[in-house]
Amino acid sequence: MRSMQRSMRPLIAVLLCLTTGLVHTGSAQKSRSNDHLILKGIGLLPHGVASEEETSIDTDGAPHIEKVFIHRFSHILENRTERSKFEKALQFILDAEEHLSSTFNAAPRTAQLLRDHVSGSAAALRAIQLARKLSSQITSSEGAGFQAKAATETLQQVAIQLKDLSHASCHPITRRIILATLVRLQLLLHQSPLSDEAKVLKDSPDTPRLLFHICRLLFNLHRQGGAAKGAIEFLHISKSGGTSMCSVADRNGCTAESVTNYGNCMVRRFDDRPRWVSAEVHNQSAPLDGWRWFYRYSVPRGNRSCEYRDEYMQRMRFTLYSNEFAVHGGLEGRNSDGDDGRTNGGDGRASGASWHSTHLCPQFLNVVMLRQPLERLLSHIKWIIKVYRAEYGRRSEAFFRARDAEYWRAFAPAAVDNYYIRLLLGEGVFYLPSGTVNTTHLEAAKLVLLQYDVVLLLEAGDIDELWLRMALGWRVGLSSAHARVASSSRTTNELIPFDVDDLMAANTEDVQLYDFGAVVHQLDGFMYAVMLAAGIQPYSPYNYLEASDPGVGKRVRCGYVTRKQQLLANVGVNISELHRAYDSEFPRILSMDERVRAPPPTPTPPVQQQQQ
Questions:
Q1: What are 43-64's pLDDT values in tens digits?
Q2: How far apart are CA 292 and CA 299, in angstroms?
Q3: Carries keyword Signal (predicted)?
């Protein structure tokens, strides 16, 4: 008997191994099946999935193209003046490819200006070429040469090219050129009377399905690009909701150096603090009492390169930082004191304008929020008055009582004179004399705005439920935070310059830039709204997150930028190829006003959050 038992042991062991293997195999298959269902629920399928599943998603989403378009563009369809302005902005976007390289010919080689291997890949350029060709067919003789079959084939080719784009970028310029074409096509299909060819395209059930398919591919590229980048750079335009954004970012689980009202999500070593007031003009009313954060106008930031920033953000495990100064670069003609010694490197060509090296950092998900410029200007003046009252009490009135617009142009030069354009074109333009910003600067600033991955409008009624949700993957909205409100007391109103209308009249270029930004916002909003209407989740388990939950930030974890696993790895992307590594730490650069005192200690990195 014992001999038989001994002889049976190997067989039992084999059976146990087989049984365990089957259990593990079944478990793995169940896990893969669950992952597949999750990906289908967020409209993102792995490479090699049967086309029937994609067709099913796009068929279900197709009806929302028409509904969302009518909801968001009816005012343009009904108003010829608005239609003309809108078409002009669309044409600028469609022509952007021709102007980017020449306008920013001294920008770093890594800047995503459609000339690098990421944003300017063969697939991206081909997709742009196809979109522009279709757009020109739509507008030629009001669509007289338009062919339904050729349009469908072009759209199909655009979709094929989009599937070959790099996951290292959100491709904002390519996306907006394609969306401009899709919206222009929709405008054609809603005009009256319709040509026979346009009617054929409109009546085809394949048209809305194909349009939804392209929108979904663009949305996927945006989410996956955000995940690959891993952190957000937020351009905080003073008095445009930036402090509230920092507060909300904290509630959405973003990690930043400081989320206090003073720290405002900025990183001290980047020296992105605002430059509002001229210390020289301040000194005419009261002596300077050390370095104050609000009178740093003309203090140079110098070159903190994108690599300098990216290495530090990775080392500290931060997922968001705020820049309340100018866009990077634009140092031509200014002393770039504080060079980190490892610059990005331009193409070596001579630059005739101070904005030719202006660039965004492709390592980050770049976000900007705009506010109606004249409202922002008035709020900024009131806020500066409030800051001075808090610092100097009754003595603060000496700075503002009976002062006119000319005084404010010297006191806060950039803040009251086309502030948006000055910020978007770098330090050189930021410090131009008052009254010198012109239409040439405006056109260049539009091109910079097009490079932002996310363009928010503070006034947008759907900023929480659409924009923060679909553009960033955040759950807690701005409605939960109003961090700073400029005073409107009688005393403050009395200290506003009596000829403030003169200041407002001089901000025409900023108003035009804002109007252009509203069109960019509208194009992206069409894509996001279609995805939301179709029930596409930003990621799983977004629909189970509650904004009112005190611990919601631990589950949101700053949205897309922490979801490499779900948005990239789970669909077959090799995320190791997207990792950005540095051989060593960059040495700290001290700003001019930090050199007179000991720098603050380096903060301790937060505990690393687990990637989903």
A1: 998 876 667 888 999 999 999 9
A2: 12
A3: yes
